[in-house]
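Job type: complex structure
Entries:
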Amino acid sequence: MNLFRHIAGEITRALQDMAAAGELPAGLDLSAVTAEPPRDPAHGDIATNAAMVLAKPARRKPREIAEALVGRLRQVAGVTAADIAGPGFINLRLSDDFWRARLAEILQAGAAYGDSDLGKGTPVNVEYVSANPTGPLHVAHARGAVVGDALANLLAKTGYGVTKEYYINDAGAQVDTLGRSTYLRYQEALGLQIGDIPEGLYPGEYLKDVGRKLAERDGPKWLNQPEEIWLPAVRDFAIDELMESIRDDLDAMGVHMDVFTSERALVQSGAVEAAFKALSDAGLIYQGRLEPPKGQKPDDWEDREQTLFRSTQFGDDVDRPLKKSDGSWTYFANDIANHHDKFRRGFAEMIDVWGADHGGYVKRMQAAVKAITGGKGALDVKLCQLVRVLKGGELVRMSKRAGSFVTLRDLLDEVGADVVRFTMLTRKNDAPFDFDLVKATEQSRDNQVWYVQYAHARTRSVMRQAAAAGFEGLDAAVLVAARHERLVDAGELSLIKLLAQWPRQVEAAAQAHEPHRIAFYLYELASQFHAHWNRGKEDGSLRFVVEADRELTLARIALVQAVGFVIQSGLGIFGVPPAEEMR
RNA sequence: GCGCCCGUAGCUCAGGGGAUCAGAGCAACCGCCUUCUAAGCGGUAGGUCGCAGGUUCGAAUCCUGCCGGGCGCGCCA
């Protein structure tokens, strides 16, 4: 149970009782009332702002409301103290037994502790990576992949019906360029001299493989043919090859998409026309002219009338073109169809994870979603800032395979998927990130992955030690039944309190769409666990396994197991398997 | 020129989204190893939360302006 929500419910009920008793006006809006841990634990276990928030609408002084409320809150089960602080805050203290009762919940739930039905099954579509199939995935994609995947897992854990989706940008001019670039490598594979890769084509060596495979499959049949003959076949072949390698890379990182949507297929199905018609019918399409951007006018700017979408009606800065000068759809038009299609598939809630270089695109896409869904759909966009790869402080630039960037595969080879996944989440998505390959694998406290894994390994170590000391069959039932009231040490109790915050942390992170919060919580939990461990070194009576006191040992093992479960629960969101030992 | 993001301790970053003293790690200094991994733990020192206003009983948190850095700005995706 999310005990903060539980207490918030109790506070709400007390306020309603007060209203019924005439101590407060009826019909007050209680939605701003919170129950949360105070910043300083010395203030108590839970603080509520109820009296402060209601003072104005109730036309009463905060302290008056607080005085009345405190009396009622003292009657709530588990509450041992309710005090007024400062201008009218109420600090609650809960009994140790109330806290210890969380232990049984954790032990029964195991790694599922923190799961909730917050989302009530609401479908959510999380679109991430969505890289063009024109080259291997690189570090920026890795960040998007990790953020998107963890966010999706987080939402699934909190009861949303999550679909992980990849939108394949396989319809534009870039894939034609890919086709031409591949054709060159195909010729090369058949023994022709191709010289330098011409400007405008992709020079990456990764296309050599693709060219060679094409030569193996088709032989020389495309040689000496006009481009219009070979381009479609070569392009499609290359897209398939690159998508396969992209899927392999994602697999290697533990990212598994539910749906791959092809832009090309979408266009061919007439989805763009359908979306366009919907906007048009709503009177949101017109022919007009745009001002050139100030300060930086493109040299080839040509003032002309074009087909525009009234995105300004939905908060965008200027209206946006949906057709190129040759009459074909813009990428934006296709992406409107993409989101329209998601909405029609049942997703009113959509999340896109993009690179920061697409930041200028957010407003128009959100505008489009509002327009095309009649206001029923909502799009949240998570922008991932730049990732720089360092090695011992030195910037790493070149990749063996790709030429100008570090590939995802390089990263995985260098530090492993688990480290990539966790480390990428130790920063907010909208803060730039320096990924240091040396630090990422260092075994020290400033390496958060290692530190959290070490804590989990230590929980396992305790279990092994306990078994060696004759404690066997330590299953959930035995640990749930253990005498938890024997846990009276301050370190033990504060660990329990931190564990009890987990469900709230998960829900808060899910609602904010911020998976990085999980990493910080896990780091704090690990820190407290290591600290408590060390107390046992200094004071033998605090060690987990006390052979002379079987009852106490079982209670402490229950706590250790609970710590392990919560770490597992958290790492599960990141898709990182917990370590059994660190050797 | 316009839009978005960022500006918190020497360094790298948190700060649950308004209120009860500004946090962590690293680096610096001082301590703790016969016992479950010292790959660790504890302590000291260090900040007018970019600047200036505003809203409020209360602002690192919300609003406005400015300064500094990043990203982007029809017919690329």
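Summary: Chain A is about 50% helix and 10% strand. The mean pLDDT of chain A is 91.
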